[in-house]
């Protein structure tokens, strides 16, 4: 990935170079101070220390419901020698202490009879009296400069007589989408067009960071047009995000434009994804050239934009909590790059297990599905399976602790179950990672998941899953039937090649798309081939592997392939045709002691509901006749 | 605190009782679903599963800048046997893969000469090709129901062709302030009046939880008026917060009003602060009677309102990260109540140390200053000093790790330094807890803080602080002079009793206010008394103790006391007169190896700046002649 056109500046050095460029260009260190009513100040950062103008409470007051007394009048009172008071005043919590009294006796300890109050214990002076200034003393320092105001802070300010606060105004972030192929959301797309989802995301990230965000029109790939847009945006913003064109392709003008209109401090950082970042300034405004790949764009905001925006407000950047976790599998990483890996997390046994998600810069769903971010620093060549790693959390740890982790084969019914469980109870998460049936069984054996989804055919016996459970896992594991489903050939609409059976796959010129080794669907194909005495080498495309049913359907849909084995639901999703070749059971494998796990109870309940069966069968190609049955 | 008028329902039972009451009253389980454009959906919760309408990418595209080729044309290419291609097309990242080609070779690996491209390595089919659906496959489940949408989520939805999302509308929270003594913010206050800071805080808390908040006019203490306000609010809101009057005093109508207008489920929970909570329903709307003490109000929102609001949205409640910490001191707690204790946190050595803050329900600053919340469950009778406890974090742990912890005597100069350090660098926090000079030295000895502020006079030698450091701490500790300051008698404006010296304190009828044992100011008084052969018992009020200079000044200001020993700045803060009796050094004590602690470097730098000296001396009663000098 080391490119001669874009440099590999380490992240820390990039921060420093950009900071120096901002200082040299005279970029303001802080945004301006504004005075706002306390009620509008939540979320803003104090621009001055806040001193209390008044004490709170502003007077000595009763801390209880009861009577105000003179402590000296109660001297000698005891259970055996009660004292009758005539000089007292009834007070409620918060009432000013009436003049002449110096203590309060709780209502519950007063045995009153008309004009007299009977007391059975002496009280010291100032008992249950809230002193003036108990909470806030006039002139004390209530809040320092550089403090992001929370609800309790503004309430305390108001209590201290502060009606207006000097705060930093919200920084303004200008976002400029560029690219001849970029279309606004809602546009009708021609082949090759790409929707401008990055502006939407970056604007939302900026707002989440407490800033105002301003998205300009999409600018075409033209250096002059980009320069004009950049200058205009820089004039009215505290930070400009210029999207795409930050690499070194033919239409990548960002670096040149920034260098021409201002200062180019950094072009390319040793961070993946996010390598082709541009950092610079234009007209005293910091500029980030944000890579166009969506994961790169999101992380570039976090790594480079967010800290500068916090600095402009004079506040510490928001920080994510973190936890330690154990890697579910080996995580290779190239030396020389900070590698930001998205992971799913779940607690299995007493460990938090981290399963890496796809690492492509274009796979935004890897960030959507991520529970955490793990950085493999540039000096580290990855981690072994089981290694303990530090993970920044994108979801709360308590939520992660409650998550049911399924690793194995992919099936839409699992997704449907996940959504149905959550609709019932928002505290439930069923997270599934797709590594194929065999991979799931291995993950279960290694204590990396609660459930393994499997439809793995044993060629020797013709049985599904159970022989593998016997062989790989042994005693102490149970199997629950999730569903029966049709497997078949996914083909173009109208089945133009008129494929009817597995035997047709050797046809000259046909382009097959296969599933990866360890996938149940691959085992099914291999079994069918063996049964027929067919040679895999005779199937054109046998070596081309995809990792999910939907990816197979996508390949057929795009015309890259003519056929692939998969499930009806995947064919339907892409409007493709389907030639059934087999019905197979899809099962959930788990430790027997997990059957009693509280987290799984709602799933067993769901699998017993006919309403859910109806929903599943409505997908097509599914039968729920044995759904929920324990078969081992 | 056990009241016969308000019950002590355990928190879990209170949640259950309220849930059952809501169900019985027919309160909606969820707020209504609305359809909003993806761009407006961030922060909202999905009301249905979101299925992808389109694949992303929507076409096979180039994953790199380079040339599109046919993989088969590159067969045999190697360093020693380069292949010259004539059939290729230049592509940039994201370009659709031109028809007829099936792989991309990175620009850096192409040695091009005009119309020909020289290739020195064979490439497999689909190298650097982003497949259709690599990120999102049409018809896959993108997001489950009950998912709070983040920037990456809406971007993924947009990429998947989803232009509108079905989400739960923001719940509406109605807030009703009540009380004859409550005045709106900005009002001119008469004695006994209290500002309505709770509405401001609760509205901000509701907005922070993603809700709309609507604050009504202040309602007087009249059951009919409160009933009318409650019914009106319930008609237009998803949750009503009725502030104050939730206890059982004479003017506490909340419980009766809720019972009269709807269902009273709970009156009083075993939670401190927050005990007199009312939970119920009115007209199919849940109602919380929120205690009027501000800390109780804030925690009542967190404990009871926030979970219901999350449930109405069908989402998991926001959750605070937590950490383990060691208690700086003993923490007693009554059996039978969940005790929510506010703590300051700091990392000293390899431990996070938690110092409990004042526990009064009225001390809002305890929540403002808190870094974390610690719950002592109702079955636990407190913790020993040093005990390991679980703390919910109110500040980020990285920020806490960077915090300089000062425990000891209080001085305004420390506050001023804290604010100045933060203004320079928002990442720096100097947090001071006031326990008196001796308490600070003990805390330093026990590894609970980085700095101990001390002005402790040794009566035997007349020296400050150093003899105690020798005796208590021994080798390995350094002392840095912070400031010299005037100590004197704080008296009413005009010094009506004409107090001129320590000797005057025995005057008949005088009301003295003292500092607590272990405070440097107390040691100073005792020393001055001993020097003069005076008997403490002869000073009226000697036994009445306050814990800060400002509290002493507040006592004089309120007329509760005639005089107290303290610093000029405290007298000035309350507009009081000051009779100097001594000048004393105020020093910072620390471990010698802490001198090299990076976290403290900015403090040493600040203490050397004349600008800071000027600011300090402008407070009055301070001299910076020796500020920053190491004296041990």
TrEMBL record, chains A, B:
Keywords linked to the UniProt accession: Magnesium, Metal-binding, Molybdenum, Molybdenum cofactor biosynthesis, Transferase
One GO biological process term: Mo-molybdopterin cofactor biosynthetic process
Catalytic activity as recorded in UniProt: adenylyl-molybdopterin + molybdate = Mo-molybdopterin + AMP + H(+)
Family listed: Belongs to the MoeA family.
Cofactor(s) the record lists: Mg(2+)
Domain of life per record: Bacteria
Pfam family, any one: MoCF_biosynth
UniProt-recorded name of the protein: Molybdopterin molybdenumtransferase
Pathway(s) of this molecule: Cofactor biosynthesis; molybdopterin biosynthesis
EC number: 2.10.1.1
PANTHER family named in the record: MOLYBDOPTERIN BIOSYNTHESIS PROTEIN, MOLYBDOPTERIN MOLYBDENUMTRANSFERASE
């Amino acid at each position: 990935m080391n490119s001669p056109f874009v440099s590999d500046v380490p992240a820390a050095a990039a921060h420093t170079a950009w900071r120096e460029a901002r200082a040299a260009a005279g970029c303001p260190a802080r945004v301006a101070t504004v005075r706002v009513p306390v009620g509008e100040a939540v979320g803003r950062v104090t621009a001055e220390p806040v001193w209390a103008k008044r004490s709170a409470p502003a007077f000595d007051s009763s801390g209880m419901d009861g009577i105000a007394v003179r402590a000296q009048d109660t001297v000698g009172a005891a259970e055996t020698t009660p004292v009758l008071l005539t000089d007292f005043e009834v007070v409620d919590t918060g009432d000013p202490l009436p003049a002449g009294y110096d203590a309060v006796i709780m209502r519950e300890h007063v045995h009153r009879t008309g004009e007299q109050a009977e007391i059975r214990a002496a009280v010291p002076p100032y008992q249950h009296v809230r002193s003036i200034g108990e909470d806030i003393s006039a002139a004390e320092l209530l809040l320092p400069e550089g403090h992001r105001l929370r609800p309790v802070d503004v309430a305390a300010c108001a209590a201290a007589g502060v009606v207006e606060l000097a705060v930093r105004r919200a920084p303004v972030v200008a976002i400029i989408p560029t690219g001849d192929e970029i279309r606004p959301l809602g546009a009708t797309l021609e082949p090759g067009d790409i929707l401008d989802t990055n502006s939407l995301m970056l604007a939302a990230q900026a707002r989440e960071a407490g800033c105002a965000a301003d998205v300009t029109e999409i600018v075409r790939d033209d250096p002059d047009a980009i320069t004009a847009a950049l200058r205009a945006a820089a004039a009215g913003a505290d930070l400009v995000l210029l999207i795409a064109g930050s690499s070194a392709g033919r239409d990548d003008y960002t670096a040149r434009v920034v260098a021409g209109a201002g200062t180019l401090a950094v072009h390319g950082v040793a961070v993946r994804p996010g390598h082709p970042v541009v950092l610079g300034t234009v007209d005293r405004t910091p500029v980030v050239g944000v890579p166009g790949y969506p994961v790169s764009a999101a992380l570039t905001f976090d790594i480079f934009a967010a800290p500068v925006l916090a600095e402009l407000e004079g506040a510490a950047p928001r920080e994510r909590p973190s936890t330690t976790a154990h890697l579910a599998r080996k995580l290779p990483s190239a030396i020389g790059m900070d590698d930001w890996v998205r992971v799913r997390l779940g607690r299995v046994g007493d460990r938090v297990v981290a399963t890496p998600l796809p690492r492509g810069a274009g796979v935004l769903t890897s960030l959507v599905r991520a529970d955490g971010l793990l950085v493999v620093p540039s000096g580290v060549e990855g981690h072994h399976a089981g290694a303990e790693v530090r993970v920044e959390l994108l979801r709360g740890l308590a939520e992660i602790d409650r998550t049911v982790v399924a690793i194995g084969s992919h099936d839409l019914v699992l997704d449907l179950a996940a959504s149905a469980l959550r609709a019932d109870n928002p505290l439930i998460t069923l997270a599934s990672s797709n590594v194929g049936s065999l991979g799931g069984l291995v993950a279960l054996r290694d204590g990396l998941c609660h459930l393994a989804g499997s439809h793995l055919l044993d060629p020797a016996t013709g049985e599904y899953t159970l022989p593998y459970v016997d062989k790989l896992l042994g005693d102490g594991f149970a199997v629950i039937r999730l569903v029966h489903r049709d497997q078949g050939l996914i083909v173009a609409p109208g089945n133009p090649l008129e494929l009817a059976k597995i035997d047709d796959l050797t046809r000259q010129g046909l382009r097959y798309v296969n599933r990866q080794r360890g996938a149940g669907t691959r085992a099914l194909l291999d079994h069918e081939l063996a049964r027929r005495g067919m040679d895999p080498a005779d199937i054109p495309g046998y070596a081309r592997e995809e990792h999910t049913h939907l990816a197979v359907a996508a390949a057929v849909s795009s015309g890259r392939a003519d056929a692939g084995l998969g499930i009806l639901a995947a064919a339907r999703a892409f409007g493709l045709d389907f030639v059934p070749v087999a019905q197979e059971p899809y099962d959930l494998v788990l430790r027997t002691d997990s059957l009693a796990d509280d987290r799984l109870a709602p799933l067993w309940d769901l699998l017993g509901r006919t309403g859910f069966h109806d929903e599943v069968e409505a997908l097509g190609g599914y039968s729920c006749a044995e759904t929920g049955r324990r078969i081992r």
